[in-house]
C-alpha cells in the first residue's frame, strides 16, 4: 500500500521528524476542584486559603498544575489530595467546564479544567497541606440571588475568590440546581 503524502510530499513520519513542538506557545494546564458537602438542605463548599503567591492569603478552590503525562482528571484527584488530604477517585469528579479567559492567572497563559463532586460531610475531613495555608467548609447561601459563602466570622462573595474561581463556583452551583430540578 502506498504511503499517504501531504501537499509537500511528506509522509507522516517525515513530517513528524521535522516538526518543532516549540513553534507554538502553549498554555499551562491546571485543574480546579469544587467539592460540595450536602447535609439535608444545607450545602457547604470546600475552600483553601492560598499559602503562596499569587493571591497569597486569598480563598480559592483546591487545584494546581498538571504534570507531564498525567490525565487532567488525575491532576484534579492528586491536587485535591495534596492540598486537603481528601482522597477521591478521578471517576468521582464531574467536569464543570474549561476556563481559559486571558489573564485568569497572573503567572501567564493558563487553562483550567474544573471539576465538581458532591460528598457527605461526615465522610471527609479536610486538612490544609502542600501550598494551602488553611482548608475550611463554607456555608453556601444563594437565596438572595447572589451567592454568599460564610465560615465562622469570614463572609465572602464570589468576586472575593482568587483567580476566576467566581466563575467556576457559580457554574458548579448552577450545575447542582439543574441536577436537582431548579433553585430552592
Descriptive overview:
There is one protein chain. The protein has 184 residues and is α+β, with helices and mostly antiparallel strands. It has helices at residues 12-18, 72-84, 165-179; strands at residues 28-39, 42-50, 59-60, 63-65, 94-99, 110-119, 132-141, 148-151, 154-157. The protein has a single domain, classed as Alpha-Beta Complex (Nucleoside Triphosphate Pyrophosphohydrolase), CATH 3.90.79. The protein is 19% helix and 33% strand. Strands 1, 2, 3, 4, 5, 6, 7, 8 and 9 form a 9-stranded mixed β-sheet that branches. It is elongated.
Structural key phrases:
single chain, 184 residues, alpha+beta, Nucleoside Triphosphate Pyrophosphohydrolase, 9-stranded mixed β-sheet, 3 helices, 9 strands, 19% helix, elongated
Question: How are the elements arranged and paired?
Answer:
Blueprint: H1 12-18, E1 28-39, E2 42-50, E3 59-60, E4 63-65, H2 72-84, E5 94-99, E6 110-119, E7 132-141, E8 148-151, E9 154-157, H3 165-179
Tell me briefly what this model is.
By secondary structure, this protein is of the alpha+beta class. Helices cover 19% and strands 33% of the residues.
* Sheet with most strands: 9 strands, mixed
Our count of domains comes out at 1
- What is the highest CATH level, the class? Alpha Beta
- What is the CATH architecture term? Alpha-Beta Complex
The share of residues in extended strands comes to: 25-35%
What is the oligomer described by this structure? Answer: single chain
Radius of gyration: 20 Å
Task: Kindly report how far apart the N and C termini lie.
Answer: 64 Å
Percent of residues in helices comes to 10-25%
CATH topology: Nucleoside Triphosphate Pyrophosphohydrolase
| SS elements, strand count | 9
Stretches with pLDDT under 50, minimum 5 residues: none
Average per-residue pLDDT, rounded, comes to: 93
Output the CATH homologous superfamily: Nucleoside Triphosphate Pyrophosphohydrolase
Return the structural class: alpha+beta
N-to-C SSE series?
A: HEEEEHEEEEEH
Morphology: elongated
- Counted by DSSP, the helix tally is 3
Amino acid at each position: 500500500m502506498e504511503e499517504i503524502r501531504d501537499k509537500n510530499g511528506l509522509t507522516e513520519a517525515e513530517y513528524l521528524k521535522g516538526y518543532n513542538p516549540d513553534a507554538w506557545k502553549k498554555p499551562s494546564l491546571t485543574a480546579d476542584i469544587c467539592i460540595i458537602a450536602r447535609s439535608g438542605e444545607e450545602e457547604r463548599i470546600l475552600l483553601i486559603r492560598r499559602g503562596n503567591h499569587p493571591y497569597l492569603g486569598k480563598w480559592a478552590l483546591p487545584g494546581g498544575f498538571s504534570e507531564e503525562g498525567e490525565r487532567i482528571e488525575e491532576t484534579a484527584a492528586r491536587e485535591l489530595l495534596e492540598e486537603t488530604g481528601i482522597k477521591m477517585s478521578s471517576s468521582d469528579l464531574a467536569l464543570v467546564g474549561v476556563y481559559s479567559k486571558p489573564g485568569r492567572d497572573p503567572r501567564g497563559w493558563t487553562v483550567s479544567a474544573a471539576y465538581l463532586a458532591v460528598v457527605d460531610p461526615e465522610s471527609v475531613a479536610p486538612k490544609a497541606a502542600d501550598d494551602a495555608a488553611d482548608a475550611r467548609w463554607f456555608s453556601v447561601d444563594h437565596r438572595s440571588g447572589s451567592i454568599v459563602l460564610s465560615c465562622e466570622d469570614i463572609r465572602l462573595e464570589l468576586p472575593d475568590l482568587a483567580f476566576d474561581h467566581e466563575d467556576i463556583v457559580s457554574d458548579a452551583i448552577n450545575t447542582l440546581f439543574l441536577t436537582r430540578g431548579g433553585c430552592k
